[in-house]
Amino acid sequence: MAHRVAVNDAAGSKRTSRVRVAVRLRPYMDKQDEKGEGPCVRGLGPQTLEIVNWRNATETLQYQFDAFHGEKTTQQEVFLSSVKPIVSHILNGQNASVFAYGPTGAGKTHTMLGSQEQPGVIPRAVREVFHLVRTQEKDQGEWGFSVGMSYLEIYNEKVLDLLSPNSQDLPIREDKDKNIIIPGLTHTSLSSFSDFHTHFVPASLNRTTASTKLNQRSSRSHAVLLIKVVKSQRVPPNRQQTGKLYLVDLAGSEDNRRTGNQGIRLKESGAINLSLFTLSKVVDCLNAGTGGRVPYRDSKLTRLLQDSLGGSAHSVMITNIAPEYKYYFDTFTALNFAAKSKHVVNRPFVRETMLDSTNSQHPVARKRTSEELEAEGSGEPRNKRLKGCRRLEQPPPTHPQSPVDSSVLDRLLALEKMILGSPERERLNLLKTVAQSRQEIQKLKEKQKELEEKADMLKVTGDHSGVMEEKEGPSRSATLFKTDIPALHKKQSTVAKPRKQQAVVNPLQVSQVLPLQQCAVVCKPSKVMEKKRKQTEITEGKENRRLDSCGEEVNWESQLDSSLLEQSKKKILQTLNSGSLKELKSLQLIGDKKAKLILGWREINGDFTQVEDLKKIEGITAKRFSSFIKANILSAVGM
Ligand SMILES: Nc1ncnc2c1ncn2[C@@H]1O[C@H](COP(=O)(O)OP(=O)(O)OP(=O)(O)O)[C@@H](O)[C@H]1O
């Protein structure tokens, strides 16, 4: 029988746990600081820091966090003050989570992984887990412990198993207790810290990393290490507690004007920024506390961190920042994100199951636990998966893994089972419900098909500069124990084949750009011109171009009255600055992804001052920008 036990049940009060936020400032490293600008941020005390106010350089802005770790703080100090206090919870059936956040090159991997000389949070936390297990095994003889690990990266919105590098994108699911599970993810049993090291080091080399202008060894993915401790009582009532520790090294937020990213780096960067933007939205929603939908499902990262932010984990966020002026806006944004994250409240509880001794002889009748679901398909032999603890037996999988919402299927199957043992009238009612559920499934299937079609459309419209098409040569290796493994092999990214790009012209909402009537007056072309235009208008793959009789491209702007042009641009600017996601998507050549990037840019940088600012967004090249302007203005004026 599975129980959910509130943390302070004994005391009768349910405890909440605020996300703890620490900020770590890395040492000043810019050797080319010719301007002698010095740092833009500095510590004031163990919890406070200040940063120059960009609006007025004579002022500073001060922040207070749970902890501030200055440039001289050692790895040991960071671990002891910010991480160690939450690790012990996982030996009591609770979850804990540590994640490093911050701009690229600010020290996240250094903090989480470190080097051989200066090991970071990950090796220290795992060592601590084994230390606690050994101590408790000695002190609490009736309990047995088993420790295991999984390790994954989220790369370009794909969940990849770092312990099984050839695996495909893995699905993320949620069980009825809101545990996030990843069927098929490798779970490896560990007997000691050195055992962990043996598995972890090669797996880390599978992580996707590459060199950017700001960081020679930049992580191009979010890496999540999961350490699971199962504590099993050897005597009746055979309680079993499962605690999980998530250690997350996030990819850095990136400003591509400075990273110099192009091609595949730019595409990765788009995925990184988008997931971090969703993370920020999740925190906003949690802070708003309106009980509305929290957009966890909008990115794989937030789906995976669901338990860490607003869930049941004891969480610590270490925000890494850099002191150099060139990082100023990244630092400022990171500090603001950190400041709002400290208001997020989690509700830890103990995950406990109990083996019912009366039924243990008949295991088939039992309900399966989320852990078993997770282990299912892990690739490990079943007896190995169950090693070290008696598991509740589970019925065989009742349905194939399908993209359809599994909760609906489960409900349907449960209903079908009930029908078999019910009286006639009840049976009819149940059959009705079954029919309804089947309809729901059908609808979900249709919805999924629709989404897939939309996704296909996006593939066609989304990446016009060919960024998806580049096949990358060997990139650089993982940052793990950097000095100790010099000849690391780089992971090669295999990417989609080039797709021929086609302009997709959505029906234009004229009113968004200019009233139609006005257009008709200002830009009505002469009959001769119109005839010529029709004769020479050709469609050439990427977009419709207007050519004159000599085959020269007609300058479309010259056909418009300059004030009309300005007005149209103003309207577009207005939509860019205040349009909702839907309104942004109604602009020509702006799909869901670009619209979200625009919203993200707006959130971080404020309003666009001119439409040309759009070029600052990843993936919007000068060429694509001019297509965008042309498509929107011409359609608006009805040409
Ligand atoms: N506290 C620190 N002390 C000494 N060196 C540091 C510290 N923090 C970071 N560094 C160094 O700064 C460089 C960049 O750090 P790191 O790779 O950890 O950044 P990151 O935030 O993980 O970047 P990315 O998001 O691009 O992966 C590395 O050479 C690292 O060794």
TrEMBL record:
Please name the Pfam families in this protein's record: HHH_3, Kinesin
Q: Does the keyword Transmembrane apply?
A: no
Q: List, alphabetically, the GO terms of the cellular component aspect.
A: microtubule; microtubule associated complex; nucleus
Q: Which GO terms describe its molecular function?
A: ATP binding; DNA binding; microtubule binding; microtubule motor activity
Which segments carry the region annotation Disordered? 356-405
One BP annotation, GO: microtubule-based movement
State the family it belongs to: Belongs to the TRAFAC class myosin-kinesin ATPase superfamily. Kinesin family.
Positions binding ATP in this chain are 102-109
State the SUPFAM superfamilies in the record: P-loop containing nucleoside triphosphate hydrolases, RuvA domain 2-like
CDD domains, sorted: KISc_KID_like
Write down the SMART domains for this protein, in alphabetical order: KISc
Q: Which organism is it from?
A: Electrophorus electricus (Electric eel)
Q: Which residues form a coiled coil?
A: 427-461
Tell me the classification of the organism that encodes this protein.
Eukaryota, Metazoa, Chordata, Craniata, Vertebrata
Compartments where found: Cytoplasm, Cytoskeleton; Nucleus
Record keywords? ATP-binding, Coiled coil, Cytoplasm, Cytoskeleton, DNA-binding, Microtubule, Motor protein, Nucleotide-binding, Nucleus, Ubl conjugation
Protein known as: Kinesin-like protein
Q: Where is the Kinesin motor domain?
A: 18-344
